UniProtKB/TrEMBL annotation:
Keywords: Transferase. The lineage of its organism: Bacteria, Pseudomonadati, Pseudomonadota, Betaproteobacteria, Candidatus Accumulibacter. The keyword Transferase applies. Its EC number is 2.8.3.15. One of its GO terms (molecular function) is succinyl-CoA:(R)-benzylsuccinate CoA-transferase activity. This is CoA transferase. The gene is bbsF_1.
Length: 409
């Protein structure tokens, strides 16, 4: 396959303009993905402080955090105070020249500022508006504040994380729900753009953090609806569908492996890797139902085996036998992992005003002809305000100076 030349390949979303008026992760993440595939994203921020994401995480020499530099990549920062009439009017002018708006204020906030859906649709009938909140634009919880950690709880996934009868724990990253919702939001925007191509009609996308989490719970809902079954916490071994299927400590201090035997054939391969092929005999543990009925014993056998060997030895034996296994990687492990390097999952970006190389996750998904790009990391607050107001809205230098004096920008 020929590698596309980024200098000549036109990205699929070139010509699409996005206004990102949201904060922190979920809706801004949708805009970031669009920017990586060619969309021009104008990050509209309050002149005082800007997006709180600038202060979320580890600060750099520029004061903006590493999280901001990574997640606000490719965007242009434009400051506007939407509490002021002049800011509202400028925002409408930007909307008139844009295709997509991403926002995540509480329901009613934009309406209070005179920037609700009906107003903006009148300004731009083809507008696509992503609205991200904790609980959506409707329902009895619509006015409650929403955060990913709370969404994990309400959406049902946090209940499943932790040791049996122990305290439920965070299911991985505290921001998982934000990223999930950002992905669903991006999918919604792309589908809405396709609809607009056919009809010229815009629409809004109502995305709720808890719904994105709930959508990732496999058979949780039908199993309860049909049988009244409530899945509980299983700790490092998940035993509802397969066994062994979980995390097992190795002889190395603090090193674990993940093993997933979802079929009898895969368990047979694991038994061979363990040097105990007799375990896969039909009258022993060769049948999935038998393993599930004897899950404690099976998990103990696998746990004892893993605990007797170094992690690399376990993995090499599993790989040789074709048994599905992998390391539980820390970020240090990831930086040294050949697969991550071969796939270029880590991208080094030099930013002059940071004075250091910043390593960030690469662009996803991978397209063979029009792969996404990182043009630059998160911008300084207001870095592109004058450029956008002058070039896009046609404001003169004295008008921009007047706006600055009034603290509109």
């Amino acid at each position: 396959m020929t590698t596309p030349d980024p200098a000549v390949t036109r990205l699929p979303l070139e010509g699409v303009r996005v206004i990102d008026a949201a904060t922190v992760i979920a809706a801004p993440y949708s805009a970031t993905i669009l920017s990586e595939f060619g969309a021009e994203v104008l990050k509209v921020e309050n002149p005082i402080g800007g997006d709180p994401m600038r202060y979320f995480g580890t600060p750099t020499k520029r004061k903006d955090t590493l999280a901001w530099l990574s997640e606000a990549r490719n965007k242009k920062s434009v400051t506007l105070d939407l509490h002021l009439p002049e800011g509202v009017e400028l925002f409408k002018q930007l909307i008139a020249k844009s295709d997509v708006l991403c926002e995540n204020f509480r329901p009613g906030t934009l309406e209070k500022w005179g920037l609700g859906w009906e107003v903006l649709r009148a300004v731009n009938p083809g507008l696509i508006m992503l609205r991200v909140t904790g609980y959506g634009q409707t329902g009895p919880y619509r006015d409650r504040p929403g955060f990913a950690r709370v969404a994990h709880a309400v959406g049902g996934i946090a209940f499943l994380a932790g040791m049996p009868r122990g305290t439920p724990v965070t299911p991985g990253s505290t921001t998982l729900g934000d990223y999930l919702t950002g992905l669903y939001g991006c999918i919604g925007i792309l589908m809405a753009l396709r609809h607009r191509e056919r009809t010229g009609q815009g629409q809004y996308i109502d995305a709720a953090l808890y719904e994105s989490v709930f959508r990732c719970t496999d058979e949780l809902a039908p199993a309860y609806g049909m049988f009244g079954r409530i899945r509980e916490r299983h700790g490092p071994t998940h035993n509802d569908f397969a066994c062994p299927h979980g995390h097992f400590p190795t002889k190395d201090d603090g090193k674990w492996v993940a093993i997933s035997c979802v079929t009898d054939k895969l368990f047979e391969r694991l038994a061979i890797a363990m040097g105990r092929p007799e375990l896969a005999a039909p009258h022993v543990y060769g049948n999935q139902k038998t393993r599930l009925d004897n899950r404690h014993d099976v998990n103990e056998i696998v746990r004892d085996w893993c605990g007797s060997l170094h992690r690399d030895d376990i993995l090499n034996r599993c790989f040789a036998a074709g048994a599905p296994a992998g390391p539980l990687n820390s970020i240090a492990d990831i930086f040294g992992d050949r697969q991550f390097h071969a796939r270029r999952n880590l991208v080094a970006i030099d930013e002059q005003d940071i004075g250091e190389t910043v390593i960030v996750p690469s662009v996803l998904p991978r397209l063979s002809v029009t792969p996404g790009r990182i043009k630059h990391l998160g911008p300084r607050l207001g870095q592109h305000t004058e450029e956008v107001l002058a070039d896009l809205l046609g404001l003169a230098a004295n008008e921009i100076d007047e706006l600055r004096k009034k603290r509109v920008i």
